[in-house]
Design goal:
With 224 residues, the chain is an alpha+beta fold. The chain folds into 2 domains: 103 residues, SPRY domain (Jelly Rolls, Sandwich), CATH 2.60.120.920; 116 residues, Alpha Horseshoe (Serine Threonine Protein Phosphatase 5, Tetratricopeptide repeat). The chain is built from 7 helices and 6 strands. This is Concanavalin A-like lectin/glucanase domain-containing protein. InterPro entries: B30.2/SPRY, B30.2/SPRY_sf, ConA-like_dom_sf, SPRY_dom, TPR-like_helical_dom_sf, TPR_rpt, Ubq-SigPath_Reg.
Length: 224
């Protein structure tokens, strides 16, 4: 929410505030008029919110699964995190980066190579994918890893179609690549291509049947 928002109303139910509500899964955009968005959530669920000031969008994450863009045309202004609670005695725990985020895509946890990790962080900060590609070529990490890390960078930047191209190339080289199946399945979910998302997640679960993220994402795809 912004500084002038009303604090006696739930997030999203007044001007200058936005909110994803637990009781119905709807999104509220500066008014009490609701818009269908995602699934309901409850005690034990982890909800994340990601602001992308490069493409002016906001998205939410439930238990590590990207629910897609909730709001576009974000103004370049000051925003304040706010969580609304209606139940008496309710407790919440907030994480602003002092602990590891549940949403792995936003972290560098799945990048094993330290020099690549350093370049990847620099790329995300500068929003320059071409320099990143040149750096990967100089590091000589191979075609598969180059496609993998470029796709992840594109994904974080919100360049989903470009990420999908690299992931598809990676799957042409290695059909059962779990990284590519995970990220492409998530991209298809974000882009509302549910059949394609389901196919990738199904294959991922055939490879790793206990993958918690894939199980959660599969539930979300079926809900759509």
């Amino acid at each position: 929410m912004m500084k002038m928002a009303e604090l006696n109303k739930l997030p999203g139910c007044s001007k200058n505030s936005w909110g994803y509500h637990s009781d119905d899964g709807n999104f509220f955009d500066c008014s009490e008029t609701e818009e269908p968005y995602g699934p309901k959530f409850e005690t034990g669920d982890t909800i994340g919110c990601c602001f992308n000031f490069r493409n002016n969008t906001v998205l939410y994450i439930k238990n590590g699964v990207n629910l897609g863009i909730a709001f576009r045309d974000l103004k370049n202004d000051l925003y304040y995190p706010c969580i609304g609670i209606r139940s008496k005695g309710g407790l919440i725990e907030a994480n602003f980066g002092h602990e590891k985020f549940k949403y792995m895509a936003i972290t560098d946890d799945d990048i094993d190579d330290d020099p690549v990790k350093e370049k990847w962080i620099e790329t995300i900060k500068q929003y320059n994918i071409e320099d990143f590609k040149n750096s990967l070529n100089s590091l000589k990490i191979g075609q598969k890893n180059t496609l993998k890390y470029c796709a992840k960078a594109y994904f974080i930047m919100g360049e989903y179609k470009e990420a999908c191209k690299d992931l598809t190339k990676l799957l042409e080289i290695e059909q059962n690549n779990e990284f590519a199946l995970k990220y492409r399945g998530e991209i298809y979910l974000i882009l509302n291509k549910y059949e394609e998302s389901y196919a990738d997640l199904k294959k991922l679960l055939e490879i790793s049947k206990d993958d918690e993220w894939a199980l959660e994402a599969n539930i979300e795809v079926r809900r759509r």
